[in-house]
Amino acid sequence: MIRCGIIGMGKIGRVRAREIQANPHTTLEAVYDIDPELCKEYPVKHCKSVDELIACDLDAVIICTFNNVNAPYTIQALESGKHVFCEKPPARTSQEVEAVMVAEEKCGKVLKYGFNHRYHYSVMEAKRILDNGTFGKLLWLRGVYGKAGGNKFSENWRNQKELSGGGILLDQGIHMLDLMMHFAGDFEEVQAMVQKSYWNVEVEDNAFAMMKTGDGVAGTIHSSATQWRHKFALDMCFEEGYMNLEGILSSTRSYGDETLIMAKRQFEDDTFAMGKPREERIFFDTDDSWRLEMQDFVDAIREEKQVEFGRSSDALRVMKLIEKIYEKSGFYEN
After folding, report:
1. Which of 86, 109, 132 is the last residue before a domain boundary?
2. Cα 206 from Cα 195, distance rounded (Å)
3. Per residue in 109-130, pLDDT tens?
């Protein structure tokens, strides 16, 4: 049995606790949060500090904290001989991730980062189809990930640069960038515009970027905190057709139905109404992403192997891309 402790019992920490309790190979042994009230419902050891939790007789530590402490807590847990599952973003900077990787290399423990979107069924099906070559070579991608904001959005800790390291791109856009690299590979060329459009905060509320891989796959992303609705969309066009991911399941279902739309390219010699190909729509009404993600972590520990997704190398790649977008925009230079 893998004995687990959780640092940070907010929304995501509670999701992780649920999956630990549901998994036949894990048990929740200890929790810590700066607000003790969030720990009360769990009949386990309530630690009074991070140090106390990491010092407990545990096999794994789950880190669901502010971005500024993700890297140091991960290093501390690894150096104490624990496996670590840390939420995204992995840190505030790529340098902080590189410091984690030094500790990871020395301790030889399993380290996983929470890039949850790769475990959604629509994403997994799209990746399977891409890898099968059904539509030929990928030509370009276009991703949009938007939030509605909210009355207290400007007060959220995610908009305080010292705690977060960046704004909406680092908070939410990181998921879209991770998916785009999952499908297309590394982006080497970047042009970007990052700005504050509306919110009176220290970080960006909109980020636009144009990118290109070494083999010529182009991509654009718009990550926004002024969408005024929750929106997730990733369009991919290939030599012989297209796939669109629209909506992604969440606890509130506010991002709409999770849908994979695909069609073969049709020119005028194939159809009367060119430009309106026959589409196939697949709806996904089950979200097992949290369970599958935890299972990957558990399997890696039990089988003494690397995790499939969310490796430190994945985290470093996406953090370097985010930093390149910030650099090209010049937003944080002043």
Report:
1. 109
2. 6
3. 999 999 999 999 999 999 999 9
What CATH number corresponds to the domain at position 122?
A: 3.30.360.10
143 beta partners: 221, 234
How many Cβ atoms are within 10 Å of 164's Cβ, its own excluded?
22
Q: What is the pLDDT of residue 269?
A: 63
Rounded CA gap, 48 and 226, in Å? 38
Q: What is the pLDDT of residues 189-237, one digit of tens each?
A: 999 999 999 999 999 999 999 999 999 999 999 999 999 999 999 999 9
Judge if pTM exceeds 0.90.
yes
Distance CA 91, CA 50 (A): 17
Burial 174-206 (b: 16+ CB within 10 A, else e): bbbbbbbbbbbeebeebebbbebeebebbbbbb
Asked if 264 and 234 sit in the same domain, the reply is yes
Domain span at residue 189? 117-290+318-329
| 91 and 121 assigned to the same domain | no
